[in-house]
Amino acid sequence: MSVAPQAGVPQAGAPQAVDVATARPRIRPLRWVAGAVLLVLVAQFARFLVTNPGFEWPVVGKYLFDPNVLRGLGMTLLLTVIVMLLGSVLGLLLAAGRLSGFRPVAWACGVYVTVFRSIPPLVQLIFWFNLGYLLPRIPLGIPFGPTFVSWPTNSVISSLTAAVIGLTLHEAAYMAEIVRAGILAVDGGQRDAARAMGFTARQSFVKVVLPQAMRVIVPPAGSEFISLLKGTSLVSVIAMADLLYSVQVIYNRTYEIVPLLIVACAWYLVVVISLSFGQRRLERHFGKGQR
């Protein structure tokens, strides 16, 4: 005659329950080994930075706050902000065009995005800087008709103008895809509900779709802004006085190449870290109510 096991009474051979509150963590030797190796590598790198005389840290400290370097940093920040604003506006228009039901506009916007994402920004900068070779004068008049006024191209397309045009056209292509992805991430029912409440198409987009799309747009747009900041170093090729060009002018005179490059790296690092903190705050703001 078999006896049914009683509830709460441990049976012979059954696994014993473990109290999670008093359980000891498992020893993971591979983690200890990886941590030790990482510590050794960090110590070795720190020793390399401190003991290698080639870094010339006194020279780095001398030029870190040099007026020419700070002016170059200011130009880099100004160029980044201008290009990001213009590129975002143009990218928004391109995204709206690609989502448009009017096929010629959608096709034209798609061709623009494909072309300007395919051409490297350095090539675009050099091309726009040498636009005078193809177009000696910039005319203003009626298409296929008379010209009212014109200006010499080389006097209009300076290094700053070429940098703004080239980087803006390149940035707009990427921002168009970022904005388009954010808009497509919003459920179509949101638009239908807004229209049912009497919102116009513009009000539906501005008050309903765009705020929800920002949750998807902000992370890649923030990364794109940081990439743009670093990408502005390309304008040194067309002799624009940004941060990299400013340190190049100094080390071409003093031949202290490595210390001046460290100065540029230090300022890029400071600005990028600051922008990363701002990006996280924006992500938390637009991600409210989301896990």
Automatic annotation (TrEMBL):
Record-linked Gene3D superfamilies: MetI-like
Segments crossing the lipid bilayer: 32-50, 70-93, 105-129, 149-170, 233-251, 257-278
Gene Ontology cellular component list: ATP-binding cassette (ABC) transporter complex
Compartments (UniProt record): Cell membrane
Start and end residues of each ABC transmembrane type-1 domain: 73-279
InterPro entries linked: AA_ABC_transptr_permease_3TM, ArtM/GltK/GlnP/TcyL/YhdX-like, MetI-like, MetI-like_sf
Gene Ontology MF, one: transmembrane transporter activity
Entry-linked SUPFAM superfamilies: MetI-like
Membrane disposition: Multi-pass membrane protein
Family to which this protein belongs: Belongs to the binding-protein-dependent transport system permease family.
Name by which UniProt lists this protein: ABC transporter permease subunit
Lineage, broadest ranks: Bacteria, Bacillati, Actinomycetota, Actinomycetes, Streptosporangiales
